[in-house]
Amino acid sequence: MRVLKFGGTSVASAESIKEVVVIVARAVEEDRAVVVVSALAGVTNRLVVLVDRVLAGDTKWHPGLEDIRSRHKQELALIGNGNHPEVSRVIDTRVNEIDRLLTGISLIGECPQVTGDRILAAGERLSAPLVAAAFEAYGVRAEVVDGSELIEADRGPDGAEVRVEATAGRTIGRLSALDRDIVPVITGFVAADPAGHTITLGRGGSDLSAAVLGAALNCDCVEIWTDVNGVMSAPPRVVREARTLPILSAAEAAQMAYFGAKVLHPTCLAALAGRDIPVLIRNTYQPAGDFTVVRQNAGKQVGVRAVTAVEDVAVFELNRPPGADKEWGQRLDRVLAEVQNQLLVVSRTSAEGDWTFVVPALAGDRVADRLATQRVDGAMVRRRSSLLALVGSSVLAQPWIVGRALEALGKQRITVYGLFAGSTPCAISLLVSPEELGAALEIVHESLMLGSWANAEPIRQEVENGKEKIERVYSGGYRQCRSEAHSPAA
Ligand code: ASP
Ligand code: MG
After folding, report:
1. 3-state secondary structure of 427
2. How many structural domains does the chain have?
3. Given pLDDT bands bounded at 50, 70 and 90, which one contains residue 454?
4. Ligand number nearest to the C-alpha of 11
């Protein structure tokens, strides 16, 4: 059995939904398939904006809401013969529900979490019936299943925490009751708390839904269908030579996500930890194109796979002032603990003396504010910068990697303001100026030859032949591309 998850860009319109139907129709010829969908592209963002505006006192949310209603109805009219009165009613029910919830928020002037969750979940609850209607229209039997019927989660301090066992029980029970030829179309991002209230899994959480369901069903693989050809060796908009990485370990993928690559929701891989369920990242618009397989354990190789970047970061440099009281270090520790979810890298020299740490630029004000409140005084510099990371397995174990990258940057007179290594074997990161980031990415990508070996022919050929037996594909493709990768040729 396979789980196929389609993101917002894959279900953006009736036209893209048709691509989805073709992909799923082919998948069900071979095996049972479970489909997970996101909201139509941009819809969740619009719901977030509506809530924010209502909270800010704006009472004119109706035009925005009517846009959402008409967009879904317009796309519905383009599916099959366009005649889907039941789905049209579902759309009305959902949109009217959002309207009532917004009225409530507007009256009480605050948005309780359960209410906010119900509003945000509406995006997926609107998209799933559209997708299921498309399946039916093109001859694939389908049934909408709400994520809250399957995934159980608690509200934790850092967001929803999935209850793995309860989820497995519910999922197996609910889905095995379906006829074999019915494809469940499940609302991603949506779950229920133990009391049955809707809860959402955090932005981008449909990936997590797919992983959690994949684990619950012990399926053969989880396919994340998006609008790019898998995970690339560099940001493709900046580095034209960027290539699809045919295979990545979960640790590498997690580091790439952490250091800015648009890969997967980071918790998605954690949900599959300890299981040998590969995650495939594939392009809905190029189903026969290159793709990436992420495996929990991708072998024992060492080397660099990709260069990624967090474009806009705030760098804080702190020196303990000479006469500082004893608690200075403790106060700083407190701030770092408060903002730990935001910390990208931290470096500390002599005990409590000099510190450098990096956070996404958006978190910069909050960190500065916390430092001031906690009276962490002393010489402090805050700089805007970019963080570039070399990601792979044991990148540190082969010093030629960072050596060659630094040499190439130096030759092109790109200044490196900071270097962080050692806390993970999978990444080394460098600070460069935002103006030089594009050039730095290209130089590092080229100097490490990341574009020349990353593409694995065997994987692509198998898919073109229509035999998507990934088990066989990556066992062959993997070794071939790896052995070329790690000869430090110069
Ligand atoms: N629709 C949700 C979001 O935009 C969940 C997802 O797409 O993964 O965050
Ligand atoms: Mg997403």
Report:
1. strand
2. 2
3. very low
4. 1
